[in-house]
Specification:
single chain; alpha/beta; Gyrase A, domain 2; Isoleucyl-tRNA Synthetase, Domain 1; Rossmann fold; 4 domains; 5-stranded parallel beta sheet; 4-stranded antiparallel beta sheet
Length: 577
């Protein structure tokens, strides 16, 4: 409906410019739903955009626009000038009846579009290295990335979900050493030092075990999961691993088990990746060296103080960055640049990286490196999310990933379930800090827990259907619904809100902001539940057969939209609660 009105307004504005001898393209005109219902169905700033080009006051242009728009072939009921020159528009009531009919006929497809047809996008998210269980911070990124992917799919994009990880380097060596220390400790061959001595401990292993304490590696990984991996090795191998069992034995065992747990966790929250990409593959294929050679050839790399630098300052950034340390080891930046060139090689039109706010500094340099290699940096989008804190009883739950004093996704799921977890992780804008209220998330009452409130609205439509069946009334087909019987203001308001769904999906997809779906579903819930509960005014199953079918049709429309919205959030749409 908004698109039809926008097209009419833009054509009218273009006609006014043409009459004034102005053939330049028109930009900046908006047509949006006002915050307050009394200001109309839509409002446009067209008159104010035109004022400089037509050299007239906004209100004078607004009056001309209203006159020219007229009824818009039955689309418009009336229009008024507001404030400095806004035009508020009320659509003819029959237009909303047509919207309801379209919703009923579209069913589960209502809200879907082909905006991204024939366009290929990669969404890379989570990308946690296999050093421990997924924390709530990973959880926010997982749900954010998955919901963005769902929105893009709903708008016609061809989406590839990708998980990028590195199972090499110092962190993995420390992981293996941590497991080894616990293994030796469990065999009684030695004892790990107290935790308060860890920072002063040496990371080297003693030459002999008897009578000497195991030195836990500095910054070693702690927590029960390390001991559990060590116990599994002990139970299987006994004392057979007292001597290091070949290259990477403890490290490989830890990686295999932890990564399997990560994949099980992701599966439990409904996330499946199309591609798991290992950073080591870039080294094995020689891509790191090739990228470095190509950057040198571009003239944007130089050597200084034994290190290799990217001339990022020549690409508009504040300072140059080291890409190879004086030790000869690449920094994180070089493989990141190589990885993104590899993405372009797979033909993605758009690349979306979902990352934590602590990676903000890296993004511009990755783009600079990609640009130096001849690719368009604007095809890469970094979607950063702020951190998550957990609170209970008004207090923040302190967490530390390294010390494993954190609540894992699995632990949260055991307490609150997948649907509530997904809702709380996506209900706020990604760029806003997320305070995860554990007490509210555990609340079972649908009137208090906002996740259950949305699901209950969907389930309520099935409750209405069951009531109808008990009275021998079947749910109507679209052809059986006389939408004109819905004449009450609150009924038309609900239909208007339902009609906004395709636009909300489009906006959420294009802005990469799934929280818009949450806000929208709340608004539908806030309109439908009071409507249903006011039995005196809005009894759905009436003695009037035509009115009953119309209100049951409205109920079905609410069901379709709520189900589609919940699917976009990755939540279930229950029939009973």
């Amino acid at each position: 409906m908004r698109e039809r009105l926008e097209s009419l307004i833009l054509q009218t504005a273009a006609d006014l410019l043409a009459e004034a001898g102005d053939s330049e393209p028109l930009a900046g005109v908006t047509v949006e739903a006002p915050r307050q219902q009394e200001h109309g169905d839509f409002a446009t700033n067209a008159a104010m955009v035109l004022t400089k080009r037509l050299r007239k006051s906004p209100r004078e242009i607004a009056a001309t626009l209203i006159e020219r728009l007229g009824t818009g072939d039955g689309l418009i009921d009336r229009a008024e000038i507001a404030g400095p020159g806004f035009v508020n528009v009320w659509l003819a009531g029959g237009q909303w009846h047509d919207v309801l009919d379209r919703i009923l006929r579209a069913g589960a497809d209502f809200g879907r579009s082909d905006e991204g047809k024939d366009r290929k996008v990669q969404v890379e998210f989570v990308s946690a290295n296999p050093t421990g269980p997924l924390s709530v911070g990973h959880g926010r990124q997982a749900i954010l990335g998955d919901c963005v992917a769902r929105l893009l799919e709903a708008t016609g994009w061809s989406v590839v979900r990708e998980y990028y990880f590195n199972n090499g380097g110092r962190q993995m060596r420390v992981l293996g050493d941590s497991v080894r220390a616990r293994y030796l400790e469990q065999l009684g061959k030695a004892a790990a030092p107290p935790l308060d001595a860890l920072q002063d401990a040496e990371a080297d292993w003693p030459e002999t075990l008897d009578g000497l304490p195991v030195v836990f590696p500095r910054d070693g990984y702690q927590g029960d999961y390390i001991g559990e991996i060590a116990a599994a090795i002990r139970d299987r191998e006994g004392e057979g691993w007292l001597e290091e069992p070949g290259e990477g034995g403890f490290r490989q065992e830890a990686e295999t088990r932890i990564f399997a747990d990560i994949r099980r966790t992701l599966d439990s929250i409904g996330i499946a990746f199309d591609v798991y990409f290992n950073e080591n593959g870039l080294y094995d294929a020689g891509e790191i060296d090739r990228v470095l050679d190509d950057l040198r050839a571009s003239g944007l790399v130089y050597d200084e103080d034994g290190a290799t630098w990217l001339r990022a300052s020549e690409l508009g950034l504040g300072r140059d960055r080291v890409i190879v340390k004086s030790s000869g080891e690449p920094t994180y930046l070089l493989p990141d640049i190589a990885y993104h060139r590899e993405k372009f090689g797979r033909g993605f039109e758009t690349i979306i990286d979902v990352q934590g706010a602590d990676h903000k500094d890296q993004g511009p340099y990755v783009k600079a490196g990609v640009q130096a290699l001849g690719h368009d940096p604007d095809q890469i989008e970094f979607l950063f999310h702020e951190f998550v804190t957990l609170s209970s009883d008004g207090h923040t739950v302190k967490q530390s990933t390294r010390k494993a004093t954190f609540i894992t996704i699995d632990e949260l799921l055991a307490d609150i379930g997948v649907d509530v977890f997904r809702y709380f992780m996506i209900e706020r804008r990604a760029q806003s800090h997320l305070d995860f209220d554990l007490d509210l998330a555990k609340e079972k009452d649908w009137t208090r827990n906002p996740a259950y409130s949305l699901q209950y609205t969907h389930a309520r439509t099935f409750g209405i259907e069951r009531q109808a069946e008990e009275r021998g009334v079947a749910m109507p087909t679209p052809e059986e619904v006389d939408t004109t019987r819905l004449a009450l203001p609150e009924e038309l308001e609900l239909v208007k809100k339902l009609g906004e769904f395709p636009e909300v999906v489009s906006r959420a997809a294009s802005s990469r902001e799934p929280h818009h779906i949450v806000y929208y579903l709340r608004e539908v819930t806030g309109l439908f539940n009071p409507y249903y509960q006011d039995k005196d005014r809005h009894e759905i199953l009436t003695e009037d057969e035509g009115l009953t079918r119309a209100r049951l049709g409205l109920t079905l429309a609410v069901r379709s939209v709520m189900a589609a919205g919940l699917r976009l959030l990755g939540m279930t749409a229950p029939e009973r609660m």
